[in-house]
Design brief:
Layout (H helix, E strand, L loop, with lengths): L2 H17 L11 E3 L8 E9 L9 H16 L6 E6 L5 E10 H12 L4 E6 L18 H4 L7 H4 L9 E6 L16 E2 L4 H4 L30 H10 L16 E6 L8 H11 L16 E4 L3 E2 L4 H12 L3 E5 L10 E2 L7 E6 L17 E4 L3 E6 L8 E6 L2 H21 L7 H11 L18 H9 L4 E4 L3 E3 L4 E8 L10 E9 L5 E6 L5 E5 L10 E7 L8 E9 L6 E9 L1
Parallel strand pairs: 1-5, 6-8, 6-9, 7-8, 9-11, 11-13, 13-14
Antiparallel strand pairs: 2-4, 2-5, 3-4, 10-12, 15-16, 17-25, 18-25, 19-24, 20-23, 20-25, 21-22, 21-24
Helix pairs in contact: 2-3, 7-10, 8-9, 10-12, 11-12
Length: about 575
C-alpha cells in the first residue's frame, strides 16, 4: 500500500475516533431479503418499506432523493433511475428501476437501500407463476406427483412443460380402450409372434389393443387373471389431465404409442428387441415403419439374468437414433445387476420408492440404478375385466413397473421443453446425466442404493430449458488482511462446458482497490485471473463484470471467487458475485 494511502487511512481513523464520543449510536440497517433474487435472471421492481414515524415515511420528496442517492452509490456510472410507483396496502413503497438489473446489481442496490436508517426492509417485487392443480377426481390419491419428500414434483413442472410434441412408446401388454387415455393414444403395433402368448388368435399386426393376459394353463406359468398392466403404465405416462375425469398423467401433453410385447406368461426377448428398434424409428422386416420415432421408450418389464446381447444391441440401436430407454429395476428385493434389461448399458434403470420416501420393500437396488420414482400404491387407468376386456376403470398397483413410467413421462417433459424453445432435443446420455444431477435424496432408507435419488420433474425441466443461467452467492465474506477468502457457488443439473465468454460479475467492497487480487477458481482447481493488484489504483470497491473463456471447464461443480488482500492496512468484504452460462 502506498504511503499516501496509509496516511489517508490513519487520518480517517483518527477523525472517526474523535467523533465517536459526540455521535448518537448508528441506527440499525434495514433487513435485506435476497430470496427473491433467484426467481428471475433480472429484476426491475423492488419493495421498500420505510419505518413508521421516520422522516421519509412522511415525505415522498425525501424518498425520491434517497432513491437517487442509493442508486448512485450502489451502481456508480451505470446507476439507473429509480422511480417510486405507488404505496402498496402494506405501507411499503413500490420502486421501479429504469433498467433490468442482474442479480449482482440488484443485490448491491438492495443493500444500499437498506443502509438507510429509515428503511425497515427491502425485497424483490418478484413475478410468481400459476401452479396447476388438476381437477381429476383421483388426483389427490396420486401422491407420486406432488408429495414434497417422495414425489417427482410434476405439479410444479406442468406450468413449464406438459410433454407436448413428444411421443412415448409403452412396450407392454398393449392397451385397452379408456376414456381417460384414448385421445392421447396414436397408432402402435403388436409384436407378439407366438399365438399362445398373444391370446388374440394371430401373430404380429397393427392392432396393439390388449385382449387380456390371463392364464389358465398351470403347466406354462402361474394361473392368473388379466393384469391390464400396459393400460396402467400408459395412464401414468399420459392420462388425460385436468378434464374432471379419473386420474392425471405425468406427461399428459404427450402422445402414447402402445407397443404390445407382453401377453400370457410374459414376452420373448426376440419380440421385445424388434419392438425396441421399431419404436425408435428403425426397420423391422415385415413391419411398416413407425410414422415418427418415439422420444422415449418405457420398458416396465424384466427377468432374471444379466443383459443379453440381443437386447443390448437393440438398445444401442435405439440410442443411436436419439430415443431414450427407461426400464424398471425389478421387484425381487435384489441387486438389479442380476436382471435384464435393468442391467443393460445405456438405459435409465428406475427403482421404486414409497410415500415415506424410502425404497419400496420389493424394489431391486444397486449400482446399476440411475434414479428412483414413486412405485408403491400408484393409482392409474385399468380395465375391470377379469379375463377379457370389460369396462374402463382405475386401480392402485405396486412395482418398479409403476416407477418407470413416472420417469419416462419426465423425459417427455424435458424433451418437450427443448422443442418449445427451439432447441435440439437432448441425447440419451445427456438426459440420463440431467435426471441424475437434478434428482433429490430420499428422506428414508435405501439399503443397497437407489441411484442419484428421486427424479425432480421441475428441476429437470428448468435445467433442460436453461440456455444461459445465472448463479449468485450474495453472502458477505470478509477479506482478511494479507490473506485470501473464497466465496463458493455449487452448480448441479447442468450438462456440457462453460462458454467462450462466460460472464462473471463481481461486487467487492474494499477501502483500497489496488490491494486486491481476484481469481475465479474452477471446480477442478484451475485459476482464472480476473484482477491483479496495482499500487497505482487508489480507488475503493471492485464492482465489475468480467468475460472469461471457460470452454474447457464443465459447468457442474463448486466454483469459487477468491479474493486476496496483498497489502496491509485496508479492509473489505465480498458483497456478492455471480457466474452465468
Amino acid at each position: 500500500m502506498s504511503q499516501f494511502a496509509s496516511t489517508r487511512l490513519n487520518l480517517l481513523a483518527l477523525a472517526t475516533a474523535l467523533s465517536l464520543g459526540t455521535l448518537a449510536p448508528e441506527a440499525q440497517a434495514g433487513q435485506v431479503n435476497l430470496a427473491g433474487l433467484q426467481s428471475a435472471a433480472r429484476h426491475d421492481q423492488f419493495i421498500v418499506k420505510y419505518r413508521e414515524g421516520s422522516a421519509k415515511a412522511a415525505s415522498t420528496s425525501r424518498i425520491d432523493d434517497s432513491l437517487k442517492r442509493a442508486s448512485g452509490a450502489a451502481l456508480a456510472h451505470r446507476a439507473p433511475e429509480l422511480k417510486r410507483l405507488r404505496r402498496i396496502a402494506t405501507g411499503a413503497q413500490l420502486v421501479k428501476s429504469g433498467r433490468g438489473l442482474d442479480r449482482v446489481e440488484a443485490s448491491a442496490l438492495m443493500r444500499q437501500l437498506a443502509a438507510d436508517p429509515d428503511v425497515e426492509y427491502v425485497e424483490i417485487d418478484r413475478m410468481l407463476q400459476p401452479l396447476l392443480t388438476p381437477n381429476d377426481p383421483s388426483y389427490s390419491q396420486q401422491w407420486g406427483y406432488f408429495d414434497a419428500d417422495a414425489g417427482i414434483r410434476a405439479n410444479t413442472a406442468w406450468d413449464v412443460s406438459t410433454g407436448a410434441n413428444t411421443i412415448v412408446a409403452v412396450l407392454d401388454t398393449g392397451i385397452t380402450s379408456h376414456g381417460d387415455l384414448n385421445s392421447n393414444v396414436i397408432a402402435g403395433y403388436d409384436f407378439i409372434s407366438d399365438t399362445f402368448v398373444s391370446r388374440d388368435g394371430d401373430g404380429r399386426d397393427s392392432n396393439a389393443s390388449d385382449p387380456g393376459d390371463w392364464n389358465d394353463d398351470s403347466t406354462q406359468c402361474r394361473v392368473s387373471n388379466s393384469s391390464w398392466h400396459g393400460t396402467h403404465v400408459a395412464g401414468t405416462v399420459g392420462a388425460l389431465t385436468n378434464n374432471s375425469v379419473g386420474v392425471a398423467g405425468t406427461a399428459f401433453g404427450a402422445k402414447i404409442v402402445p407397443v404390445r410385447v407382453l401377453g400370457r406368461c410374459g414376452g420373448r426377448t426376440s419380440d421385445i428387441a424388434d419392438a425396441i428398434i421399431w419404436a425408435s424409428g428403425g426397420s423391422v422386416t415385415g413391419v411398416p415403419n413407425i410414422a415418427t420415432r418415439a422420444d422415449v421408450l418405457n420398458l416396465s418389464l424384466g427377468g432374471a439374468g444379466t443383459c443379453d446381447t440381443t437386447t443390448q444391441n437393440a438398445i444401442n440401436s435405439a440410442r443411436s437414433r436419439g430415443s431414450v430407454v427407461v426400464v424398471a429395476a425389478g421387484n425381487s428385493n435384489d441387486d438389479a445387476s442380476k436382471y435384464s434389461p435393468a442391467s443393460c448399458a445405456g438405459v435409465i434403470t428406475v427403482a421404486s420408492v414409497t410415500s415415506d420416501s424410502a425404497r419400496s420393500s420389493f424394489s431391486n437396488y444397486g449400482t446399476t440404478i440411475e434414479v428412483s420414482a414413486p412405485g408403491s400404491n400408484i393409482m392409474s387407468t385399468v380395465n375391470t375385466g377379469t379375463t377379457t376386456p370389460s369396462t374402463a376403470g382405475y386401480a392402485s398397483m405396486n412395482g418398479t413397473s409403476m416407477a418407470s413410467p413416472h420417469v419416462a413421462g419426465v423425459v417427455a417433459l424435458v424433451q418437450s421443453r427443448r422443442k418449445a424453445l427451439g432447441l435440439a432435443t437432448m441425447s440419451p446420455t445427456d438426459v440420463e446425466t440431467l435426471l441424475k444431477n437434478t434428482a433429490y435424496p430420499l428422506a428414508g432408507a435405501c439399503t443397497g442404493g437407489c441411484g442419484a435419488g428421486i427424479v425432480d420433474a421441475r428441476k429437470a425441466v428448468d435445467a433442460a430449458g436453461a440456455t444461459t443461467q445465472t448463479y449468485t452467492n450474495g453472502t458477505d465474506y470478509a477479506v482478511p488482511d494479507l490473506a485470501s477468502v473464497d466465496s463458493p457457488i455449487a452448480i448441479s443439473g447442468r450438462t456440457g462446458y462453460g462458454l467462450s465468454s462466460t460472464s462473471v460479475a463481481v461486487d467487492v467492497r474494499h477501502t483500497f482497490r489496488g490491494d486486491l487480487q481476484i481469481d475465479l477458481v474452477a471446480p477442478d482447481g484451475s485459476l482464472y485471473r480476473l484482477k491483479s493488484t496495482s499500487s497505482s489504483d487508489s480507488a475503493d470497491n471492485v464492482i465489475a463484470t468480467y468475460s472469461v473463456n471457460l470452454t474447457s471447464e464443465l459447468k457442474n461443480g463448486t466454483w469459487k471467487l477468491r479474493v486476496r488482500d496483498a497489502y496491509s492496512g485496508d479492509t473489505g468484504y465480498i458483497n456478492s458475485w455471480s457466474i452465468s452460462f
